[in-house]
Write a structure and sequence with these properties.
The protein has nine helices and eight strands. By secondary structure, it is an alpha/beta fold. An eight-stranded mixed beta sheet has the order 3-2-1-4-5-6-7-8, sandwiched between helices.
Length: about 240
């Protein structure tokens, strides 16, 4: 599949590398010379300016934005809108507020184009995607997402905004779990029982006897990391 990576930075370079390794053709819009030189070892990568991207892509066109601030995304959309056509798809895998996705999807709908918002989850080098947007557009690009994700790691979550909503909900849940386990650790260390009941013993108990509860099947080291004293603030 022919894909334009519309943004610069390390996340976009990583995306382009994964696309090349999966056998896709990549058109780079904002990656610098050093990034392009590193990526050349993984396959052929073309270069284009923002304005020339639509003319250089195969139809239906796929334009992928990663880690794009809202203003920059909207500014790019202003420049691209006149060149977009029916069945073109913009993929946004940045940390976008899901209500912004609703507005952009409606804007693209007037052109017959689509927005797919992709919440990205990383586990080591492996990726999974929670995708929101038009289901037909998602089905067309499902092979693209699946080529980058581990088996079973791609899910259509609903209409525009659903992917980023699921991602933000996951971050909130993870934050609350961290706070809960951090609080448990502090309670144990402040109690008269900490000599007999260490935090690792507490985690082992929750795993062994609290099946079906949140995090019951996570490895102990993962739970211990959640409770690390340095993790106290809510992610943006």
């Amino acid at each position: 599949m022919h894909v334009a990576v519309m943004t610069g930075g390390l996340e976009s370079e990583d995306l382009a590398r994964r696309l090349l390794k999966a056998g896709h053709r990549v058109l780079a819009c904002a990656l610098d010379d050093e990034a392009l030189e590193r990526l050349a070892h993984h396959g052929r990568i073309e270069r284009a300016s923002l304005e020339s991207v639509p003319a250089k892509l195969s139809r239906p066109r796929v334009l992928w934005f990663a880690t794009t601030p809202a203003r920059e995304f909207d500014a790019a959309l202003d420049k691209l809108e006149g060149s977009l056509a029916k069945d073109d798809t913009l993929v946004d895998s940045g940390n976008t507020f899901y209500e912004d996705d609703l507005c952009r999807a409606k804007r693209l709908e007037r052109k017959g184009a689509f927005l797919l918002d992709a919440g990205v989850f990383k586990e080591g080098y492996r990726l999974s995607f929670a995708v929101g947007g038009d289901f037909a557009a998602f089905e067309f690009l499902r092979p693209l997402f699946e080529s980058l994700a581990f088996r079973g790691g791609v899910c259509h979550c609903g209409g525009p905004g659903a992917g980023h909503f699921v991602r933000s909900l996951h971050e909130r849940t993870e934050h609350l779990l961290r706070m809960a386990y951090h609080d448990a650790r502090e309670c144990i260390e402040a109690s008269p029982y900490k000599v007999d009941l260490g935090f690792s013993e507490f985690l082992l108990f929750t795993q062994r006897y609290c099946k079906g509860q949140p995090c019951a099947d996570l490895p102990l080291e993962g739970l211990a990391a959640m409770a690390a004293p340095s993790v106290t603030s809510r992610p943006d």
